[in-house]
Structure formats: C-alpha cells, structure tokens
Amino acid sequence: MYIPKRYGQSRIDNCPFCGKIGVTKNSQGVSTCKDHKDKLVENLKCVCGEYLDLGVGKWGPYFRCINCGNINFRKAMEMNPNVKQQTPVQERKEIVVRSDELDFMY
Questions:
Q1: What is the number of domains present in the chain?
Q2: Which range marks the domain in which residue 71 is found?
Q3: Which residue, 13, 16, 22, 104, has most beta carbons within 10 Å?
Q4: pTM beyond 0.85
Q5: Chain centroid, CA 73 distance in Å
C-alpha cells in the first residue's frame, strides 16, 4: 500500500541538548527547543582528536574536521555524548490518604 509523504513529516530536527523537537534556531543556526535557544554547541572533538567547526549549509548544520573533512551533524553528536545534558529524574512520592485525614492537600 502506497502512503504519500505529507508536508513537514519528511524531516524533523531535534534539539541536540535534550532531544525534544527543535522549533527555533540559536545564533549558530542549529535547531533547538525553546529552553535551549541561548545555548551554543561548543568544544566537540572528532575521532581523530581535532576540534570540529560548525557550519550551516543547504541541508542543515554539519561539522568540519581539518583531517577528516565534512562530518554529518548526527554522527558528530554521537561521537560526543557529553553534549546532551543529563536531566535529573524527579522521584515520585507516594501519599497514602485515609478517610480520617481531611487536610492531605494542605
């Protein structure tokens, strides 16, 4: 069964810091979420040990290495897992309410 492409579903850019859908671009031209629009992508290294330079082209952002050449944005982010910030998981607190306790909301 053939399902045609719909407008806007062929490419979805995610925020490189948290993984949410990128709705805005920061000053470097990278799609980010609204929480990280002021944060910059910095200090990424290639597998050869050189620093990567960020570039923005016709098909989106990419990185340049002096030794290796152009590198896909997604591959460079996979090589540097320390860029994604670790969001702390809040533990849920279980509250047991009995019928004789009326002030559990206060």
A1: 2
A2: 42-83
A3: 16
A4: no
A5: 11
